[in-house]
Amino acid sequence: MHAPAIGLPALRERRRAFTVLAVLGALACASILLACGVGSVSLSVPELFAALGEIVRGEPSTLAATLLQLRLGRALSAFVTGATLSLAGVMMQALLRNPLADPYVLGVSGGAAVGALTAMLFFTSALLVDIAAFGGAVAVAFLLFALAWRDLRGGVNADGNATMLLLTGVIVAAGCGALVTLMLSIAPDNRLRGMVFWLIGDLSATQLRWLPWAIWLLALAFAIRVARAVNLMALHAEAASTLGIRVGRLRQGLFLCSALLTASAVSSAGSIGFVGLIVPHACRFAWGPDHRLLLPAASLAGGSFLVLADTLARTLVAPQQLPVGVITALIGVPVFLLQLHHIQRK
């Protein structure tokens, strides 16, 4: 007689999670559709579907089909970049148990910047820039992994914060920042603008690739699998080990996934700020701290947010295009201040 009543709260939570994720999925599709239709030449919904049919058939002969190809590739790149940054932000906040953590806090983006600017300084190939950025980020991630092995193995202080990892990341980021400043100071004028745009965060030259999608989907699958363990670790890291959670293994997985996600996003679009900070906070305020919902919800919301921000970046002062990092910062600063004010009032 009592069994159905015991399972009722869990059933309600599942229905709520399904509803939230369904709404966010629909929002993601709507944002991509809006990005494809808005521009110097607007496309209606019937024109979009007709152009999509041409592309599917391999016969993009009209202007609408050509525009859709360009806009759809950029919108999908923006979505996977935003989803990647938001997922990395949630993982980093759980790993460091610090709500101010974001994907760039440990200096992985600094390594990507050093690699990308080095390639821009000596080469002109966009593919080499992406490869160098990814390689620089991965190199810094492995350096951090080696230097902060004790924290990632599970050794934490009384508050459960990975202090050594955080301090090591800050120092490495400072070193990368010095190298970036040096390269900007010696760069020729004809390459300086592109280097600055890359540092700000820009999607205008990005190309649709399968690797960022594979990294995001694999990391999301891992995140959903360990979400219950992350909940326990977020409450108290020391108590989690007594409940059967392999805290060291979980920390290592979160670090490696967040570092790989950050490397993927930064190598594709540069250092786009605030996405990995404000989106996880907004989702946490809206739907609570349960990582079983928070991880996929923040990822979907981050993708939609960056698609809309990039649409603003390319249409706000058209035909000139703004770096999308400027738009995310202009939106992120007041939103984050409002979130902090809301925290202080509680």
Give a short synopsis of this structure:
The protein has 346 residues and is mostly helical.
Characterise this structure.
With 346 residues, the chain is mostly helical. It has one domain (3-345): ABC transporter involved in vitamin B12 uptake, BtuC (Orthogonal Bundle). The chain is built from 14 helices and no strands. The protein has helices at residues 3-37, 45-57, 63-96, 108-122, 126-147, 149-153, 163-186, 189-200, 210-235, 237-242, 247-269, 275-287, 291-315, 324-345. Helix 3 crosses helix 13 and helix 5 runs antiparallel to helix 7. The longest helix is centred in the first third of the chain and has 35 residues, at 3-37. The radius of gyration is 21 Å and the shape is globular.
Write the layout of secondary structure elements.
Layout: H1 3-37, H2 45-57, H3 63-96, H4 108-122, H5 126-147, H6 149-153, H7 163-186, H8 189-200, H9 210-235, H10 237-242, H11 247-269, H12 275-287, H13 291-315, H14 324-345
